[in-house]
Every structure is written in C-alpha cells, then in structure tokens.
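hey m, so remember when u said the tokens were messed up on ur end? i reran from scratch. heres the input so u can diff it against urs
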Amino acid sequence: MPRTIALNPEEVPAESKATLDAFTKNVGFTPNMMAAFAQSPLAFNAWAALLGSLSKALDVKTRDSIGLAVSEVNACNYCLAVHSFTAENLAKLSPDDIILARKGHATDPRRDAAVQFARRVIETRGQIGDADLATVRAAGYTDANIMEIVALVAMYSLTNFFNNVFDHEKDFPAVPPAGSI
C-alpha cells in the first residue's frame, strides 16, 4: 500500500502547479510519483530544475541506460518501470538493451563505459578507483561528461529513494524482478 497519497489537481500547492502541469502535458497524464512529490514545492521544483538541466547531458540512450542501472542497484521498482517505458518509447532501446542496461551494460562500447561507470559510482557510493576513471576517459568521456554522469546518478538516486520511501501506486507497466532477467 502506498505510504503517501498522490494529490488531486485541486490540492497541488500553487508553487508546484506550473511544474506539475508541464509534466502532465509532456507525459499525457500525471504520474503518481509526481503528484505526490508536488506536495513539497521546494523539493519538487529543485528536482524538476535538475532534471531539465540534465536532459541536455550526454544522449538520451545513455541517460536512460544510466537511469536503469542506478534504479536496479537501488531496487526501485517504480523507477525501473518508468525508465523501462521511456527507454523503449523515447530512447528507442530494444528490450534486450533495456535488460542489459539494468545489469549495468550496453551494446554500444562508449555507452557501456558510461553505464558501467555509473553503476560503479552508485555501488561504491562514489569511492571509485583510478582505473574506473581511466576506463571511462578512455571511452571518450571528458571530465565534464563524467561530472554529468555523477549528477545523473545522484538525480536518479533521489527519485529512487523518494519512490522507495513512499511506495507509490505503480502507473507504468510493471517490469520483471531483477532475479528473473
């Protein structure tokens, strides 16, 4: 059972309304996570600003692959459903590529380096080794790109933790548990 209730449109704080309305327009409906997150205009708008800025980082396939890898490590079923949906429908990743990303890999060698690095960052809580940096740099990522990967890991972790704490009702197609992929 969800631990918080998604707000009805008339209950959304005024400071969250414009942000929530923009997401609703983009997605075509109001996801439960966002309707709940909107209860805190400060947290919701800060997250939305970060999401907007990081939507320009790297490419969509890499961003969605990182989201899948991080959500898998953080065991966030809500985010895994969302990222699987967006990876398939927006990033145009194949079902096999989605599963591979959940496991921290990609078929494209450059994207694979970014996803593996992101997974190492979340698994080690940022305590990565010199070899990890050397590997992602050797794949062609600049220090600025690496900073963007770390920021994506942090942003996806924020929503993972939020969704794990509040356990929203799922409104995206469910994905199989990690053990079955």
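this time it looks ok to me. The chain has two domains: 11-54, 60-175. if urs says something different then somethings off w ur setup not the seq
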